[in-house]
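Exercise 4. Each item below gives a protein and its sequence. For each, produce the structure-token representation.

Item: Iron-regulated lipoprotein (Bibersteinia trehalosi).
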Amino acid sequence: MLFLNHGLITLISLFFITACSSSVTQIQLHELGEVVDLHTGQRLSPMQFAKQIATHDYLLIGEQHDELKHHQAQFWLLKQLQQTRAQGSIALEMLSIDQQADIAKISQNPSAYMHNLPSILRWKQSWNWAYYADLIQSAFANQTEVLATNLTQEEVQTLMRGAEPLNGYRSTTTNVQQKIADLITAQHGFETTSGKNSEIIRKMVQVQQFRDRRMAEKLAQAKTPSLLIAGNHHVNRQIGVPLHLADLAPNIKITSILLGATSENISAKDADYYWILK
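Answer:
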């Protein structure tokens, strides 16, 4: 998720909690669109895609957070993968590292907490629980390691007050940071990027990059096969977690999957696969 006002996210999420009545599990195969292999241009059915990536150890799958079909596709893919392999870990942008102790508590005896997961996890209202409940319940039920990967609110506040810049080689170039700044500028509607706005944007870029670095650190230590669920920008090869993994653990081979609704101008520079869900 690109840096957004927390109150705004909460209002948006509460709207979707009340407005969305469809279940993440209720989707037919013909509704799952098609997947484009961005290296070859080949168009794959969801079943062909699932079989093709079943042996991949690090899957980074994106989403637009308020798109139900994206969550349905993610859950469907997880269930397909679970039929062919034991899932080692699931890493989630939606959980911050101060929730890892809650995750550990649940993991010791999942059945005792399954009826009350949001409360035990201290799930944040800024994320629509209805979209993630089935996936998280499935992970605990199958004894899959669940990893919190996001910054805490205190860490975000520290970064916004000013912090030492992140060190990196591929991940922290001026080009990468400018691309993130452009996305933030467009998303937040800054009329100008000069003066005070320039400093705010710079700090927001730092927050985004520290988020990506944290996700990369957690993935590098995760049990394999591992699946990261995060916003599309986080799994993008040009600006996100893949660059940080290349800095931290260059021997790790990742597969990046972007989700969208149209045949956008997306190439193998951005991801390995593009899942089109209309």
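Check: Confidence is low (pLDDT under 50) at residues 4-21.
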